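Worked Example 4.2. Read the sequence first, then its structure tokens.
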Amino acid sequence: MSLYDYLYYIILPILSVSILIIFVRFIKGPTLSDRVVALDLIITTGIGIIAVYSIHTNQPTFLDIAMILALIAFLGTVAFSYYLEKRERND
């Protein structure tokens, strides 16, 4: 079994199932924090899928897209924490 077979037949299905499980948490999340964490995990898992696809197709330009998504996810998490802090001050 080569690296490409391992990535294609083992890693991608695991990432796909994890996205489905995280999406269920995103829908059912009782609080806003649960939904934001689930969205951050979906983006992180998507970055993993993009990285595996980049390795599988031997096109490193997709890694630039993954890096941009990681920056957007980080900024979203920072903005959410800033929002929560502002909301706690106003209460």
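Now turn to a second chain, presented in exactly the same format:
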Amino acid sequence: MPEHDSPLDGGLEAEAKATHRRCIVTRTEGLPAEMVRFAISPAGVLVPDLDARLPGRGIWLSARRDVIEQARIRGAFARAARMQLQVPDDLPTQVEAGLLRRMIEIVGLARRAGQAVSGFVKVREWMAQHRVGAIVHALDGSREERDRLLSGGRDIPVIETLTSVELARIFGRERVVNVALAAGGLATRLCNENKRFAGVSQDSSRVLPDLSGGRV
């Protein structure tokens, strides 16, 4: 019997207080921040609910593209909801695009809140002050610069999913390669979203092999 739920207070930010959810395909359990919730619109259309705020009965899946595609093809959503649903053919792509958008929004929120800095020198300064909760190194940045940035540093999660153009738009500059987020909730959320994105992304250029213990 699939597990459903009422909306989470505060969405995925309430991860620490949330109970586990069970994937309707794999039957494995996980925290909401590690999974993907789907909701049903008033018109009977299945929609990704990536921050777990939409009302109604939630359907949870592991954050994996193959799992989402399997649920779509085999009618698992309709069985879980016990009703006929309109399930978009591009559902996995919708989830992928939504998660990427959320990552960009989190970095932007951190910048506006004074919890993010850009540039090699500033990032190194924050690292020396032990203020960094996560580092974003542009997907198209150089490996040599990344290694120089992290040399002698403590074990900090490094995210290499966003491009220099996407980071530049956030900071209003021509090009941004290195960004540091202050330790705290936003850095944690960014790492969680990056893990979900890695599981659902079809763009292999966005998901690189893990070459470092600090990388997420």
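Notes for the reader: Residues 1-16, 208-216 have pLDDT under 50 and may be disordered. The chain has two domains: 11-89, 95-200.
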